[in-house]
Amino acid sequence: MRIAQIAPLTEAVPPKLYGGTERIVSYITEELVEMGHEVTLFASGDSITKATLAAGSQKALRLDPSVRDANAPLAVMLEQVYRRRHEFDLLHFHLDYLPFSLFSRQSVPFVTTLHGRLDLPELQPVFDTFTQAPVVSISNDQRRPLPQANWAGNIYHGLPEKLLTPRADVTPGYLAFLGRIAPEKRCDRAIEIAIATNTPLKIAAKVDRVDVDYFETKIKPMLAHPLIEFIGEIDETQKPGFLSGAIGLVTPIDWPEPFGLVMIEAMACGTPVIAFRHGSVPEVIDEGVTGFAVESMAEAIAAVPRLKTLSRDAVRARFEQRFTARRMAEDYVALYERLSNPALKLAAE
């Protein structure tokens, strides 16, 4: 198939810094190329891909201080996609609702993967208006606030099978917290769980500018405890050692997580997960196999000693069954074929 992948311009594809959406776009794009599809990636000019790159900006906008209006290059890129639309069998957007108006007025099949939280009240009139724009969820729970949306599929994220693998040369000896330090991620809970179970905790997380005050006032004072070690942001090369050395990943979230990449990153390394039962968590964790979904701090604390009863080989095996980038790409190709073939679309409906 001739497929266009249209990414945000905030980060490169793959991102040089933090950027979950751009990582997923990269994984999908590279797998589609490996599968033999003709793929054009609309993204920032500093993106790296085996697909044909159509640059929407010179470089990632977050790294370009000369760009003061990020919507301007994005508007131009959308127009470029529109003018070239007939070169493709399908257009796959990763820009939330921004393509809906323009691309609902043309005939080339398109679909949008929604990567973020959907429980914001201002989204209701958007999806009340664009009832025919096909969208993909990344968990079934993500859909709940928008039953009126035109859901074309639910496709879980995936990672390249060999990107993160278990490290046999490290012995698990601590709890891990990975990702961002933000109020909804509840790093404070992770620290409290570690202290309550007398287990070391290593925190590998970034602090966005918007969360600096939260970090300084809420988290930083808690880092003085001898069981707690703050590492900061780590890259892909550091994750296998960090996660393989953990007894378990603690994800004590307090928000409707749309998916949660950190959970499958841990699973790829054979590391089980303890996560609070919000958003996608019950869908991602196989209870008693890859970890435990808990309802309270008491349940989380009680689950820590149970982590060692789980087979790390079984955790990795379940990752390979459910959360590889190849499985994700195959699911998208099946969706593309259905959307671009009227007969298949009618049969599915």
TrEMBL record:
Keywords: Transferase. Gene3D superfamilies: Glycogen Phosphorylase B. Pfam families: Glyco_transf_4 (PF13439), Glycos_transf_1 (PF00534). It comes from the Bacteria. CDD domains: GT4_AviGT4-like (cd03802). Residues 18-128 form the Glycosyltransferase subfamily 4-like N-terminal domain. InterPro entries: Glyco_trans_1 (IPR001296), Glyco_trans_4-like_N (IPR028098), Glycosyltransferase_grp1 (IPR050194). One of its GO terms (molecular function) is glycosyltransferase activity. Residues 170-313 form the Glycosyl transferase family domain. The keyword Iron does not apply. This is Glycosyl transferase. It comes from Teichococcus deserti.
